[in-house]
């Protein structure tokens, strides 16, 4: 996930929470607290997602380094199969 997409989603969630809180008649300080809570929770969820992706990547790299990558497993390509040559 790119950071721009996360920031857009986080901002959209914060605006939705603010609009909902204002619609329900909460005070300005309560709306501010709800928005701040939404931002903190969304950042913690994003950090959790990054940690999960990091763990999965490290596990896949460990599995990849355990198996040998020999050139015997590669399929030979002829010059006519290569693009642009």
Strand-helix topology:
Blueprint: H1 3-23, H2 28-66
Helix pairs in contact: 1-2
What does this structure look like?
The chain contains two helices and no strands. By secondary structure, the chain is mainly alpha-helical. It has a domain at 3-59. Helix 1 packs antiparallel against helix 2.
Short description:
Keywords: Membrane, Transmembrane, Transmembrane helix. By secondary structure, the protein is mainly alpha-helical.
Please supply descriptive tags for the structure shown above.
85 residues; mainly alpha; 2 helices; 71% helix; transmembrane; membrane; Exopolysaccharide production repressor protein; transmembrane helix
Helix content: over 70%
Distance between the termini: 35 Å
The helix-strand sequence is HH
**Radius of gyration using CA atoms only:** 24 Å
Taking pLDDT < 50 over at least 5 consecutive residues as the criterion, the unreliable ranges are none
Portion in beta strands: under 5%
- Rounded mean pLDDT is 84
Task: Please work out how many helical segments DSSP would assign.
Answer: 2
Shape: elongated
Question: What does the main sheet amount to?
Answer: none
Please identify the structural class as seen in this structure.
Answer: mainly alpha
Q: How many beta-strand elements?
A: 0
């Amino acid at each position: 996930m790119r950071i721009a997409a996360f920031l857009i989603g986080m901002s959209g969630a914060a605006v939705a929470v603010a609009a909902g809180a204002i619609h329900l008649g909460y005070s300005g300080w309560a709306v501010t607290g709800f928005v701040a809570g939404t931002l903190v929770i969304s950042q913690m969820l994003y950090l959790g997602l990054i940690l999960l992706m990091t763990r999965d990547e490290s596990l896949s790299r460990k599995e990849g380094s355990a198996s040998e990558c020999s050139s015997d497993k590669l399929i030979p390509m002829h010059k006519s199969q290569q693009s642009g040559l």
